[in-house]
Amino acid sequence: MDWKPEKPPTAKEIAARFRDDLAAERYSPGARLPGAKGMAKELGVSLMTVQSAYKQLAEDGLVEGRAGSGTYVIDPKKGNQTAGQTARGLRELQDHLAHVTSQLSELRVRVEQLEATRSGVVDESQ
Which pTM does this prediction carry? Predict the structure, then answer.
């Protein structure tokens, strides 16, 4: 992984970077991800941070850990989708969620404005 963040990344950021790499098919099915110890040293984070990122990827169904061997990209022969397809689907879902969150925020502002207007009308009638 060629990635030199300015500050040490969180597990969530590391997992997101790997999701992007998997979506772009930078890792082929069955490929081994970089060792967690080496990745932790390279990124300037604790081993636990990288392990947490790998755990998130495993929970997403993108990789699997093999005791004593490492973390590997899920082979599509074992599942219905490739890791890249799953990662792209997750990215699309994240984009959609961000859009919905934005719309909800705009709606909240509009409701607050309507309530303020209504309160002003009620106050004037008293």
Answer: 0.61
